[in-house]
Amino acid sequence: MPSEFTFYTLFLHPLAGALKLSLKLLCIIVPLLVVYELVRALPFWKRFQFLDEKPGGMKGLGFSPYTLIPLFTGIFLGIAYGAGVIIKISREKELKRADLWLLGLFLATCHAVVEDTLLFVVVGGMGRWIIIPRILLACALSLALVLLIRAQKAKQISP
């Protein structure tokens, strides 16, 4: 066996690198989850109810008031954590099917913006440059879906 293939180069060196990366990821994800849970527990969300009342706010994109928390969760932490929140709120508040479609479309396009960006920076990527295009694409697709849903409803109403 050649000297370049030692136990250290095959197993220990990659294991040490994986552990180092795991610790970096842990240092990002755990504080994000803690901050998210603290913010969610504060009466912070009541201040954002005005977003549904303004034409350009959440309502302008077709979202109902109950979608703010799952949307924020998915954008902040990602689909995996956001899915649990979406399921919980959809059962508690009985979200409409259109709300679930909009949440799914928006979060499929633009999820974990904060978490992904921080993770890309840790591993040396350029993740911060894709934030704005992801948000704009998610808003455009959501608006297109809302217009499609409204057109479909208008067809059903007219004789």
Structure in words:
This protein has one domain. The relative contact order is 0.10. Helix 1 packs antiparallel against helix 3 and helix 3 runs antiparallel to helix 4. 71% of the residues lie in helices and 0% in strands. It has 159 residues and is mainly α. The termini are far apart. The protein contains seven helices and no strands.
Quick rundown:
By secondary structure, this protein is mainly α.
Q: What form results from the Cα inertia axes?
A: elongated
* Low-confidence sequence ranges: none
Q: Mean pLDDT score, rounded?
A: 79
Helix tally equals 7
What integer value in Å does the Rg equal?
Answer: 21 Å
Determine the N-to-C terminus distance.
81 Å
Given helix and strand content, the structural type is: mainly alpha
Quaternary organization: single chain
Helix fraction bin: over 70%
How much of the sequence lies in strands comes to under 5%
Give the helices and strands as they follow along the chain. Answer: HHHHHHH
The count of β-strands is 0
The description of the largest β-sheet is:
none
Number of domains: 1
Write the layout of secondary structure elements.
Elements: H1 7-41, H2 50-53, H3 68-77, H4 79-92, H5 97-109, H6 113-122, H7 131-157
Helix pairs in contact: 1-3, 1-6, 3-4, 5-7
For this entry, give a set of tags.
159 residues, mainly alpha, 7 helices
